[in-house]
Amino acid sequence: MTRDDQTDRSRTLTMAHADVFTAVVLFVLALAMLWGGYTMDRLEIRRIHPASIPGLVPMALGVALAICSVILFVGAAKAGGLTRAGLSLRAPETRAATGRLALCLALTLVYPLVLVGSMPFWLATAIFVTVFIAAFEWHHRSPARHLIALATALLQGALVGLVTAYVFQEFFLVRLP
Amino acid sequence: MKSVLLATLAGAILVAPAALADDTWQPDRPVNIIVPWSAGGSTDQVTRVVAPLIEEVLGTPVVVVNQPGASGSIGTRAALDAPRDGYTWTANAIANNATYAVTGLVEDTDINDYRIYLHIANVPVVSVNSDSEFQTFEELVEAMKSGENITVATAGINSSGGMALAAIREALGEDIDPRMVAYDGGNPAVLAAASGEAMVTTQLASEQAELIRAGKLRPLVALSGAPLEIEGIDPIPSITETVEMHVAPDYFGIFIPTGAPQEVYDTMDRVWQEAIMDAPELKDYAKNRGATFDPAFGDDAREKAMPVVISEACSRVTRGEAVIDPSEIGIDCPAS
Amino acid sequence: MQGLQYLFEGLIGLITLTSLFNVAWATVLGIIVGMLPGLTATMGVALLTTLTYKLPPEQAILILLCMYVGAIYGGSRSAILLNIPGTPANAATSLDGYPLARQGRAGYAMAIATTSSAIGTFIGIVCLAVIAPLLANVALDFGSYEFFWLALFGIVISGQLTAQGEPIKGIIAGILGLMVAMVGMEGIHAHVRFTFGISELNGGIGLIPAMVGAFGFAEILTVMFDKKAELVSNKVDRIFPRFIDIWRTKWTAVRSGVIGTFVGVIPGVGEDIGAWASYALAKRTSREKAQFGSGSIDGLTAAETGNSAVVPGALIPALTLAVPGSAPAAVLIAALFIHGVRPGPMIMIEQPTFVYEVVAMLLLATIAITIFGILMARPLLFVLRIPRERLMPIVFVLCVIGPYAITLRMFDVVVMLVFGIIGFLMRRMQYPMAPLVLGIILGDLLDKNLRRGLTLSDGDISPFITRPISVTFAILILLTILASIPIVRRSITRLVTGNRSDRAAAEPN
After folding, report:
1. Are residues B194 and B277 in the same domain?
2. Model confidence pLDDT, tens digit, residues B75-90
3. How many Å apart are CA B39 and CA C348, to the nearest integer?
4. 3-state class (DSSP) for residue B204
5. In chain A, what residues touch B29 (CB-CB under 8 Å)?
6. Residues from chain C contacting residue B29 (CB–CB below 8 Å)
7. Statement to judge: residues B207 and B141 lie in one domain
8. Do both B222 and B315 map to the same domain?
9. B6 band by pLDDT with thresholds 50, 70 and 90
10. What string of H, E and C letters represents the secondary structure of C195-222?
11. Helices C354-375 & C57-82, crossing angle to 10 degrees?
12. Does the beta-carbon distance from C396 to A49 stay under 8 Å?
C-alpha cells in the first residue's frame, strides 16, 4: 500500500478509526449475546438434555464474536486507529456525498414509516417519488428548467404510484395499507 | 378471543356480497394446507393423499405447504395467524393442535379454534435399528432400567412420537430416563434411527412401514390395543402384552381455523362427505401403512378426538410438562 | 438414463406459452437489473421473490432463475461500456472489456461476453445435472454431526474468501448472520429467543425482507452517496459473434467454466470469485499474456465464462444440501421454502424430477440471454442512460411493497429498513455481505445439529471429531482459519507465489 498520497493516507486512517469504533461496539454486542445465552431459560422443567439448552449456540457466538472483535481492535490500533482522526470528512466532495446520503435517508425513512398508512398507498408513493426526483434533480438543472423538472417528476410520481397500487391490488391480490 | 371475533366480523363483511348470492363457497384462488412437519412424515404423507381428493370435489387447487420446526408449533402458529378467510388450513394429529397451549408451544389456542375433519388414526411403533442388540421390547426396557443411555428419535416433545415416548415412560415408572432427540419431523427421525444415529424411534407405523419392510428397522411393539397388522410384515405385538397402559387412537385430520364465513364450513362438510368418507385411496393407504381408516367431521370428529386429547393433556400435567392447567382450555382431567 | 428422461420431460413441460413468456420478460428484466450499477443479482432475485409470491411454484422458480442468469450476464454490459461492473460479478470483465470498448470494439466485446456467458452457464448446467444427484446421494449419509460441520464450514470459507481486506471482517459478518438467525423460536425445544417481547419476531427474521434491505435499500443509499458514472462509449460495432472467435478461445472457455462451477459449489463463494479465479488462471496460461488488461479476448472470455458458470454451480449445494453456493442462491433457497420445495439430501428421493426441472429452466434462461443479448443490444443501451434520480425512487417503492406483499405486515418493512442501513454501514466499512446472508440461512442448521448431536452423544464431543466426514470438515475449517493468520499466510504465499493482486477489488454480490 502506498502511503505517499495524502488523501490515501487519511482514508486509511478513517477506516482504522471506524474499525476501532466497530470493534468496541461488536465487543459489547458479544458480551450481551453471551449474557443473553447464559441467562436463557435452561428448560429444566421439561427435563431436556443439559447439552441441548437453547442458550448454547448464542453463548458460543458471543465468545466467538468477542475474540474476533479483539483481533479487529488490535489490527486497527496497529494501523493507527487510536491516533487522532484526519480531516478527511471535511473534504468538499465527502460533504456533498454526506448531504446526498442524509437527504436520501430522510426521504426513504419518512415514506414507509410516516406516509404509508396515513394516506392511500398510491398517494403516498406518488408524493415520495415526486419529492425524491425533484430534490435530487434541483441542482443539476438550470433555474429556467426547474419547472420542467418538477412537472416530469410529478408525472413520474403519479404514474409509479398508480401503477404499483393497481398491479399489486389487482394482480397480486395484496391488501395495501 | 376478541381478535377472533374481530376477524370473524371482518371476514363476514368482506365476503358478504358473495354470501348473499349463494351459500356454496367457491374459492377464487388456491387453498393452502400448512403441514407443520417436514415432507415425508405421517401428516405430510396422508395429507398429500387427501389433498387431491378434496381438490377434485372442491374444484380449486389445494396446495400442501410444509412449514416444519419446533414440534409443529411454527406452522400451526402460521395457520392461526393467517387471515381467517378459509384459504389457510392446517393438517396434523388433533391431539397436537388441542394441546399446544398446555405445553406452551403455542399460546392461547385450543380445540375450539378449528373445525375438525378427521380421516385416519395412526399407531406409534417402538422400533430399533436392525443391527441393534435389542430383539424384544423387554430387553429394551431392561436396558433402560439398568441406566443404559438410550437415544430415542422423535419429531419433538409435542409430536406423536414424543407423546408415545412420554406415555411409555409414564407407564414404566419414573426410574427410566431415555434421551429424546428432536428432529424436524417423523421422516428425519425415523431415518435417524434407521441410519443408526439414534438407537430407537417411537414414531408412527405409517412413517416406519417402508423402512421396516426394507429391513432397516426392527419393530418391537405397537402402541395399540391389539397387535398391529401392516401389509407385508408380521403382526407387531401390542405394548399392552408387556406393559399395562391405556392407548387412545391418535386421530389425524385437516383443521380449518374458525372465524371464516359459515359457507366455508358448510361446503367443506359436503366435500368431506363426498370425497373422503368412503375414499378407496385412503383405505389402501391405511392398509399399507398400518393405520386405521376412520373418517368423521364436525361434532362427530370432535367427540372421537376427545379421548386422545384428554389423555395427552393430562399426562403432560402428571409429567410436570404443562405450563397451564388443561381446565383453562376446557379439558378436565380425571382426579388422580 | 432416468435423469435424461426427467430432463426431457422437464423441458417439454416448460414449452408452454406462459413459461416462454415468463422466461422472456424475466431474462430481459434480469439483464436490465444486471446492467444498472447498484442493482445486483441478489437484490433482483430477492425483490422478484416477493413479486412472484402469488404465482404457481414452478413459474415463480423459473422466473427467479432467469433473473439470476440474466443479471449475472447483464452486468457485463456496464462493465464494458461504463467501466463499472453492473454487478460485482463482472469486475474482472471490465479489465479487458472496457479497453476493447475504448478501441471502438464495444459490440465485439459484448458479443464475446454473450457467447462466453452462454457457454459458461451451459458448462455449469451439465455439471449440475451430473453432480447434484451424486452429491445428494453422498449427503444421505450425513448425520447431525456432519451437518453441523457443513454449516460451520460454509460460514468460515465464505468469510475467508469473500473478505476484501482482512479475513476477520468476513468471519465477523458470518457471526453476525448467525446471530440474526438466533432470533425467534428455535427448532429443538421451541423456545423463543431474543424477541424482547415483540411477537412479530417469534417466527424469526425473514431472510427475504432482510435481503431486500441489505442488497436493495443499502445499494440505493450507496448509489446516491457515490459520484455519478458517465456513459463513455456509445458507438457499437457488429454485435454478432463470429464462430472463429469462439473456436479460438474454446479451451479458455471450457477451463473457466469448470473453475467457475467449482467455485460456485463452495458455500457462499460466488460469481465474483469465480470470475477472478478463471481470469487469473487464463492470464497465467494464455499465449497472449501481454494483451491482458488492454483488451484480451482470452481474458474477457475467462471472466464472463467464469462468473456465469458459478450460477448453476452455486445451485448444486443449494439444492442437495440446502447450503447456498452464493448470495443469490441463498435467496433462492428461501424462495424455494416459500413455494413448498424443501432442498436438502432428500430432494432426489422426495422430488426426483425437481433437479432436472431446474436444469431445464436454466437451459431456457441460457438460450434467452443469448437471443436477447444479441438482438436487444442496441435498445438495451438506453437503460444505461436512465438517471439514478429517476430510477432509485421506483426501486425503493418496490423494496417497501415487496416484503409487505409476502406477509402483509408493516413489521417486515421495518426489518427491510433496518437491514438496509446496517448493510450500507457494513459495506462502507468493507465487510463482505455474502457471509452475512449465509449466516442467516445456515444459523438454524448449525444450531439444531450441534445440539441434536450433543444430545445423541450425551454431551460428548468425540463423535464430532472421530467420524470420517466430520473430521474432514473439521480439518478443512482448521486449515482455513490457519491460512488467515498473517504469519502462516505469508509463508504460504512464499511457497506458492500466486497472483493475488487480481483479487484486490473483489466484492461479493
Report:
1. no
2. 888 888 877 888 888 9
3. 13
4. strand
5. 173
6. 54
7. yes
8. no
9. very low
10. CCCCHHHCCCCCHHHHHHHHHHHHHHHH
11. 40
12. no
